[in-house]
Protein backbone atom coordinates (compact mmCIF):
# COMPACT_ATOMS: atom_id res chain seq x y z
CA UNK A 1 0.00 0.00 0.00
CA UNK A 2 1.31 3.43 -0.96
CA UNK A 3 2.54 5.60 1.93
CA UNK A 4 0.34 8.66 2.22
CA UNK A 5 1.74 12.12 2.83
CA UNK A 6 1.27 13.41 6.39
CA UNK A 7 -1.74 15.66 6.78
CA UNK A 8 -2.18 18.68 9.03
CA UNK A 9 -4.84 18.10 11.68
CA UNK A 10 -6.35 21.28 13.12
CA UNK A 11 -7.96 20.92 16.54
CA UNK A 12 -10.32 23.63 17.78
CA UNK A 13 -10.75 23.26 21.54
CA UNK A 14 -10.73 25.86 24.31
CA UNK A 15 -9.65 23.38 27.02
CA UNK A 16 -5.84 23.41 27.46
CA UNK A 17 -5.90 19.98 29.14
CA UNK A 18 -7.82 18.46 26.23
CA UNK A 19 -5.32 19.95 23.76
CA UNK A 20 -2.39 18.53 25.77
CA UNK A 21 -4.08 15.12 26.02
CA UNK A 22 -4.67 15.12 22.26
CA UNK A 23 -1.02 16.01 21.55
CA UNK A 24 0.21 13.28 23.89
CA UNK A 25 -2.26 10.73 22.49
CA UNK A 26 -1.04 11.46 18.95
CA UNK A 27 2.58 11.04 20.05
CA UNK A 28 1.73 7.77 21.82
CA UNK A 29 -0.11 6.58 18.69
CA UNK A 30 2.95 7.52 16.60
CA UNK A 31 0.93 9.50 14.10
CA UNK A 32 3.04 11.19 11.46
CA UNK A 33 0.48 13.95 11.02
CA UNK A 34 1.10 17.45 12.32
CA UNK A 35 -1.36 18.60 14.98
CA UNK A 36 -2.10 22.32 15.26
CA UNK A 37 -4.43 24.05 17.70
CA UNK A 38 -6.83 26.96 17.86
CA UNK A 39 -8.85 27.85 20.94
CA UNK A 40 -12.26 28.90 19.60
CA UNK A 41 -14.39 29.24 16.50
CA UNK A 42 -13.16 32.76 15.71
CA UNK A 43 -9.53 31.62 15.76
CA UNK A 44 -10.46 28.55 13.70
CA UNK A 45 -11.94 30.73 10.96
CA UNK A 46 -9.00 33.16 11.14
CA UNK A 47 -6.72 30.16 10.57
CA UNK A 48 -8.77 28.78 7.68
CA UNK A 49 -9.13 32.18 5.99
CA UNK A 50 -5.51 33.12 6.80
CA UNK A 51 -6.42 36.29 8.66
CA UNK A 52 -4.43 38.11 11.33
CA UNK A 53 -1.63 36.04 12.82
CA UNK A 54 -2.39 33.24 10.35
CA UNK A 55 -1.90 35.40 7.24
CA UNK A 56 1.37 33.65 6.34
CA UNK A 57 0.64 30.24 4.76
CA UNK A 58 3.60 28.78 6.70
CA UNK A 59 1.65 29.55 9.89
CA UNK A 60 -1.59 28.09 8.55
CA UNK A 61 -1.08 25.01 6.36
CA UNK A 62 -4.39 23.82 4.96
CA UNK A 63 -5.74 21.13 7.28
CA UNK A 64 -6.74 17.76 5.91
CA UNK A 65 -8.94 17.19 8.97
CA UNK A 66 -10.53 19.43 11.60
CA UNK A 67 -11.28 18.17 15.11
CA UNK A 68 -13.97 20.46 16.47
CA UNK A 69 -15.24 20.97 20.00
CA UNK A 70 -18.79 22.31 20.15
CA UNK A 71 -18.69 24.36 23.35
CA UNK A 72 -16.15 27.16 22.96
CA UNK A 73 -16.17 30.89 23.71
CA UNK A 74 -16.56 33.72 21.17
CA UNK A 75 -17.83 31.51 18.33
CA UNK A 76 -18.86 27.99 19.27
CA UNK A 77 -18.25 24.88 17.19
CA UNK A 78 -21.78 24.83 15.79
CA UNK A 79 -21.42 28.34 14.35
CA UNK A 80 -17.94 27.57 12.99
CA UNK A 81 -19.14 24.30 11.45
CA UNK A 82 -22.04 26.07 9.73
CA UNK A 83 -19.63 28.65 8.25
CA UNK A 84 -17.06 26.05 7.15
CA UNK A 85 -19.61 23.82 5.44
CA UNK A 86 -21.32 26.85 3.88
CA UNK A 87 -18.12 27.99 2.15
CA UNK A 88 -17.27 26.23 -1.15
CA UNK A 89 -13.54 26.80 -0.54
CA UNK A 90 -13.66 25.04 2.87
CA UNK A 91 -16.53 22.56 2.78
CA UNK A 92 -14.39 19.68 1.47
CA UNK A 93 -12.29 19.63 4.64
CA UNK A 94 -13.60 16.77 6.79
CA UNK A 95 -14.80 17.93 10.21
CA UNK A 96 -14.92 15.49 13.12
CA UNK A 97 -16.88 16.83 16.06
CA UNK A 98 -14.97 15.76 19.18
CA UNK A 99 -16.87 17.02 22.19
CA UNK A 100 -18.05 16.16 25.69
CA UNK A 101 -21.69 16.41 24.58
CA UNK A 102 -23.76 13.27 24.22
CA UNK A 103 -27.09 14.98 23.58
CA UNK A 104 -29.14 13.76 20.66
CA UNK A 105 -29.80 17.39 19.73
CA UNK A 106 -26.06 18.12 19.36
CA UNK A 107 -25.50 14.93 17.38
CA UNK A 108 -28.38 15.64 14.97
CA UNK A 109 -27.51 19.33 14.60
CA UNK A 110 -23.84 18.56 13.94
CA UNK A 111 -24.72 16.19 11.12
CA UNK A 112 -27.33 18.63 9.78
CA UNK A 113 -24.61 21.30 9.64
CA UNK A 114 -22.34 18.97 7.66
CA UNK A 115 -20.13 17.25 10.24
CA UNK A 116 -18.46 14.16 8.80
CA UNK A 117 -18.36 12.38 12.15
CA UNK A 118 -19.45 12.91 15.79
CA UNK A 119 -17.38 11.49 18.65
CA UNK A 120 -17.97 12.00 22.35
CA UNK A 121 -14.63 12.66 24.06
CA UNK A 122 -13.49 9.64 26.03
CA UNK A 123 -13.12 10.15 29.78
CA UNK A 124 -9.75 8.36 30.02
CA UNK A 125 -6.43 9.03 28.32
CA UNK A 126 -6.34 5.41 27.09
CA UNK A 127 -9.74 5.97 25.52
CA UNK A 128 -8.41 9.05 23.73
CA UNK A 129 -5.40 7.10 22.42
CA UNK A 130 -7.86 4.52 21.03
CA UNK A 131 -9.91 7.27 19.36
CA UNK A 132 -6.77 8.80 17.82
CA UNK A 133 -5.73 5.40 16.44
CA UNK A 134 -9.18 4.84 14.92
CA UNK A 135 -9.21 8.36 13.44
CA UNK A 136 -5.78 7.71 11.92
CA UNK A 137 -6.83 4.39 10.44
CA UNK A 138 -10.13 5.70 9.10
CA UNK A 139 -9.17 9.18 7.81
CA UNK A 140 -5.55 8.62 6.78
CA UNK A 141 -5.29 4.96 5.78
CA UNK A 142 -8.72 3.94 4.47
CA UNK A 143 -10.55 7.06 3.29
CA UNK A 144 -9.42 8.96 0.19
CA UNK A 145 -9.28 12.65 1.04
CA UNK A 146 -9.49 15.29 -1.69
CA UNK A 147 -6.28 17.04 -2.63
CA UNK A 148 -6.61 20.47 -1.16
CA UNK A 149 -6.10 23.60 -3.18
CA UNK A 150 -5.09 26.63 -1.12
CA UNK A 151 -8.00 28.92 -0.22
CA UNK A 152 -8.73 31.73 -2.60
CA UNK A 153 -7.94 35.25 -1.39
CA UNK A 154 -11.17 36.81 -0.26
Write up what this structure looks like:
The chain is of the alpha/beta class. The protein has one domain: Response regulator (Rossmann fold). 38% of the residues lie in helices and 15% in strands. The chain contains 5 helices and 5 strands; from the N terminus they run E-H-E-H-E-H-E-H-E-H. The protein has helices spanning 16-28, 41-49, 77-86, 104-112, 125-142; strands at 8-12, 34-38, 65-68, 95-99, 117-120. It has a 5-stranded parallel β-sheet, with helices on both faces. Helix 1 links the parallel strand 1 (8-12) and strand 2 (34-38). The longest helix has 18 residues, at 125-142. The protein is globular. The model is unreliable at 150-154 (pLDDT under 50).
Please give a quick description of this structure:
The chain has helices at residues 16-28, 41-49, 77-86, 104-112, 125-142; strands at 8-12, 34-38, 65-68, 95-99, 117-120.
Residue share in helix: 25-40%
| Overall geometric form | globular
End-to-end C-alpha gap? 38 Å
Q: Tell me the domain tally.
A: 1
Which strand order spans the largest sheet, edge to edge or round the barrel? 2-1-3-4-5
Total count of helical runs of at least 4 residues: 5
Alpha-beta classification: alpha/beta
Radius of gyration: 15 Å
Oligomeric state as shown: single chain
Q: Any low-confidence stretches, pLDDT <50, length ≥5?
A: 150-154
The CATH architecture would be 3-Layer(aba) Sandwich
CATH topology, by name, is Rossmann fold
Q: Report the CATH C-level class.
A: Alpha Beta
- As a percent range, the share of strand residues is 5-15%
On the 0-100 scale, what is the average pLDDT? 85
Topology order in helix (H) and strand (E) letters: EHEHEHEHEH
In total, how many beta strands?
5
Name the CATH homologous superfamily.
Response regulator
